[in-house]
Design brief:
Blueprint: E1 4-5, E2 17-20, H1 31-37, H2 53-73, E3 80-83, H3 86-102, E4 117-121, H4 126-137, E5 141-145, H5 155-161, E6 166-170, H6 184-193, E7 197-201, H7 213-216, E8 220-224, E9 235-239, H8 254-257, H9 265-280, H10 282-303, E10 307-310, E11 321-325, H11 330-339, E12 342-343, H12 359-363, H13 368-371, E13 374-377, H14 385-410
Helix pairs in contact: 1-9, 2-9, 3-4, 5-6, 10-14, 11-14
Length: about 400
Amino acid sequence: MGIHMNGTSSSNGHPRFSVYLDHAATTPVLPEVLEAMLPYFTVKSGNPSSVHAWGRAAHQGMEAARRQVAAVLNCRPRDVVFTSGGTESDNFALKGVAWAYRRGMFPDKPPSTGPGHIIISAIEHHAILHSAEELEHHGFEVTVLPVDKYGSVDPDAVARALRSDTVLVSIMYANNEIGTIQPIEDISRIAHEGGALFHTDAVQAGGYLDLDVDRLGADLLSLSAHKFHGPKGVGVLYVRQSVALLPQQHGGSQESRRRASTENVPGIVGLGAALTRAHQNLQSDVQYARGLRDTLITGIMKRIPDVHLMGHPERRLPNNANFCIEGVEGETMLLKLDMRGIGASSGAACASGSTEPSHVLRALGVPRELAQGSLRLTPGIDNSPEEIAYALDVLENCVTELRETQAVASS
């Protein structure tokens, strides 16, 4: 770890250092993860459905990874479904359960009880929000729960929203923008008491929070490998044995007939290796990331006036620092930071390019003008204290320059 030299100097107008502080968007693949993957691109590159030696080698690697994931989630290997990532897992959870209900696959909750009802929160990832909107077009009813000023869902609000035809409650484990951790155990218990299944988008939780599905009370849980130093393009949907789920892809019998498509074996092996490493190093990784995060929060709040910390002050991801900075425009600030070697974000990477304020910040009640000054800094285990010190210096200078420019333009 340490500040990365990029081969240029400040004298020619380029940054001397390169500091990546956008781990909530994606993380670099660790060397040991890449090493585990490499044979499955070459000598073990067979189709895992083939019966010959090459296929058997690929299948054995895939099933070993499935057991690794199951060990971390504390579930049966057959309850692990490999997908293309968190977005597909979220889509599969909502649509798979909803259409299973319509097919009459829930004996204790037949379609005659109502059109089918789903509960989500206002700060869910767009994979959940847009899936819910799509289901509404097909006659399902969706309740979108509000959050408080910290982005927390009130479990009592879940209880009040439950209906006889509520088939699924989907509340994310931790928010991807502001880092707030939800009271998942309380919410899942309430959902079950009301006869509904519970799904959690745990994509941001991977590598930083406990993923024991029994403790969480999760019937379905989504993960994405690239959030915990695995490869992009591969994820997991945990599906409890008792859950009826209608496949959303057809054409093959892969993943126990739940998801047709030739499996991404190198990616799956990388996911298993990355999740195992994250689980084994959970305590030390959390402690290290929290130290970097707290240095960022303390430094920014002390050195830059008129800054507001977003998200819960305590119940938040150990690597998430999200701010709204008065008097600056977020995208301009990101460009200035990038020019000086700092990689940051104004919110969810999936919403990049949008000029609209974050739906998460709007749900918190943040005024539009203030929300335009959003900045998310998410350090990781590959960052160093020296990088954080450099980032603080650069950010302070950038904000000062932007505010001075704004003052001149307004005069």
